[in-house]
Records
---
Amino acid sequence: MDQRELMTLQHYMKEYGQQAEIFVGQLELLENGRMEAHAAIEALEAMIVAEDAIVLHQIGGGASVKAKILEPDKVLLSIGAEVVIERSNKDAIEFLKERIIEMEASQKKVSETLDRLRGQMNEINKRLEAGYQQSVAAGQEQE
Amino acid sequence: MFGGLREKLLVARNRLGSSIYGAAATQSPPELGLSTGKTAPAPETSKPISPLSPTFVDKVRVLITDRELIVSEKDVSDALSELEMTLLESDVAMPVSDAIISHVKISLVGKHRKIGDSVDALVVGALKSALLDVLGSGFNLADYVRTHNRPVKILFTGVNGTGKTTTVAKIGAYLKKMGFTVVIGAGDTYRAGAIEQIGVHAERIGIKIIQHQEGADPSAVLFDAVQYAVSHKIDVVLADTAGRFHTKSNLMSQLEKIKRVMKPDLVIYIDEAVAGNDAVIRAAEFEKTVGSDAVILTKADMDSRGGAAISIAHTIGKPLMFLGTGQGYDDIIPFEPEQVVEDLLGGGT
């Protein structure tokens, strides 16, 4: 394997590495979205069963205040396309559950692509290793 | 691709269909106490009928004389509201969603339907026509190159990290496959490794690349690429540029300079389908600031909702040209509205 081929393989590795980083970022975004949706469902369910509808409301910096929900059965929900609509607590939970299913399906697809990419990177890595060893061996022979 | 939207549209389609069936049941002759077999002479039907608000008398007359039903707005209003929610939940932009609903309403309401005709065909026809209306006519790049003076100069713009450089390589491979000669100008002289990246792509697909050092003036690189194309009678120049947000005035000025120097025939905006409505908003901003002639959406294979693909052409008034669908050079498909609508609504007439 000549130096030019080794350099090309290094470029491939770099490029695949950058692509993998983007997909890892997307996976993190999806996971954050999924966790947020789960937390929202938990809060919505708790709001309905709590008799006094008092919740702890985080205001940043680790500080929280007790807040009373005036209308626990009315939820303003961002449904997409920057549109916010009012839904009942139950409908909002259903919507969030559907969103979680969608996000999990997307996570699966991104993970599959990432696995394929990592497989290709492993292949390139093997070829690079072999190339380096050939170069080292050739150098020792010359000495 | 767009699997979530396909499933939701199927639900909305069935809902519209059952609403119309429901309306048919309430208008059926036995319930009105009319004889089912009789048909009256035709002249009565030649009277004009209000297209959007058929009266009860209109409905009965048409039902008796022509054995037809008229769909009223009330019959489908709930189903249309659900369709609107479906579209918004799929990240279809509000104006686009409004346009689709309005089109479907016009297609269905006030229309005569022969008893026994397929309701599903009527609904699918209305939905297809509404979607085709907002999707526009697409953009056939190969036809464009064939019918314009060579070299055709194509400038690619867009925000960072959407797969612009890879898309330039995919377009190069596509045009090469279509029998055109191509040169790539490595105009992203800003991002570390971008020149090497496009260089590797060009080598793999066997396309000449014009490149300068990192940090060089992109206008100069792209000017050289155009000069090379002119002197070597190359059909197409693909000009890669650095990703930028429309809010960065210095980078937008640089883009203006590139446009002045290389005088592109086409400016293509690239964004990712998975960004949904954000992609639509960004495309509109780019269109306002630098202008664009067509759009390419990458990562469409990972987009279940399809909102950006449905909304972008109608929102910015520029056609969608390609959809990126994977990692390989062949993973790019020309955006053909009829095919997309067929895939979304599948099988109906």
Note: Helices of chain A lie at 3-49, 89-142.
---
Amino acid sequence: MVLNMLTGSQAVAWAARLARVDYIPAYPITPQTEIIEILSEWVRKGEMDAIFVQMESEHSLLTAAGTAAATGARVFTATSSQGLLYGFEMLYNIAGWRAPLVLVNVARALAAPITLEPDHNDVLAARDSGFLQFHTENVQEALDLVLLAYRVAEDHRVLLPAIVNMDGFHLSYTRERVDLPEQSAVDEFLPEYKPVNPIRASAPVAKGTPVLIPPLYSFFKYQMHMASRNALKVFRDAAKEFERIFSRTYAPVEEYMLDDADTVIVMSNSFTSIGKQAVNAMREEGHKVGLLKIRLFRPFPTDDIIKSLRGKRCVVVIDQNISVGKGGITCPEIAEALYHLEDRPKVILPVIAGLGGKSISLEEIKHAVKVADRLASLRAGPEGPLLLFREDEAILVESLLKLASGG
Amino acid sequence: MERGHIFNPSYVLVTTPSLLFDMTVKPLEGMAEGSVLFVNSPKEIPIEQSKKIRVSYGDLTGLALKYLGKDILSAAMGAVACKLSGLISLQSMVGAVEEELAELGLETDIIEKNVQLAKECYLSTESVELRGLSHKPLHKVVEVRYLGEKGIPDLLSTGNTALRKTGSWRVFKPIVDKNLCTACSICYIYCPEACISLDEQGYPIINYDYCKGCLVCATECPRNAIKAEREIVWS
């Protein structure tokens, strides 16, 4: 085992290198750029046997990535935020071609107003595209899930592209202790990609052909859905193999102090570490609070969520995203998973926090837990999402609004 | 694992002293009684909270100029942070500087100069143990009200960037020697920040509120009439 201090950018670049990817189409955007800088340097020095191409936009990047995957190349790419949205049309196409590849999205909130810090409206915009989605809490997880993502995406029961999400700044530019896997171990875990009907000059294949007969469209789309659902089992099996080789365990969800908990906080991505700290603090004060981390977001791990949350008194779903006009994106999915259970939680509290990278303090998380507890005591439901926003922040905003208005 | 915003820092290191008084940066915010502040400055600076927190100073810019000939402070500040907290050994610190700078593709002699700089910074800094940190202030969650048209991100006070005195991070201050100056206007033309104006006789006047100290004026002056002085005093 070799321990290194790696940034998230370095770690996912290493994952691509260890996965022996063939092709890397790239286009820079903050906070993703460091990843492709590292890869281009390795390719230039001959340390990596891959073709690196700087494209002219993310739309071209995704088109190149998908078509290369359709020829049977193992493809890695990365983007972020506006870049993901600029190439958005191609996400649905690549998934529809059933072309597996891995795209790292370095989460950054969407304009306008423009910012560089993370929330998950960028990656969740791709929620319905057919890409598998893996959300990571720390640098090690980002590296490992890129490897797992290739194995799951390329499995013939799945054959769908995958996004591995990693928060900008909090992971991309933060050095953490990482166990960098040995090449031989990765080779054992990740066999060569065996494409289905690859495009060859000698044997032409038409991919993504028009289907102007509606039942055909319906059929193929639902095939994608079933392939994505297959990824739940494929991921579990791959994770077992991963654990055997690398001694690290990954499930679609991660439970933290859940066994005797009566209130459960649901979170994903890097701010989950703050949620775990809040759980520790509340445990010290004698409150039975736990946390459920959603690691695999597509396919949605309904059964794991039912297993972890049934019989609990309160569930607090902290969404670091907002579907404007509704609320958090994951909360309705959690609620739907639990609706038909007799022992469903009394309260499912939708919470919005950390938009545009806004910090979350332990007190804010404690406040959300208190609100949920009060609702459960009153046998009442939430009126709408609870926004976590602090007094010191309100004062700052007020002073900046005054400056902006010239008042 | 801890992650996210540090609300109550035990150690704060300030590279650019003018930031101490910057209303948007607020580097001392959240510092508890008993916490430790290090300021990169050759002399003491009056700080309001200095009774509660322990403040130390070091002229890292001077050392960086000595070793590197440039005001590049990352290795120096990193070394001070390692020593101040007492958590990281000299050997580990040197290894980290070497590794990090090698990753950037720097030449061996530049890495070595950075290591020398970091070593001197490390050895000339005293470790300060934390003692009796006061309680953390609690955050209160408040409701965000709908503000109508005030809630639209429009900027009505356009041109307000002038409120930020961009000269505050200057390391070198250009000073015009009127005895040598021929009022040729070359500095006026070359200043990338447009903060040199001309007086009635055509001599340059530098607006130090916005001069960043890039010294393009001093480089371009055909008579070498512009001297660079190390900036020490900030207001």
Note: Chain B touches chain A through 24 residues (CB under 8 Å).
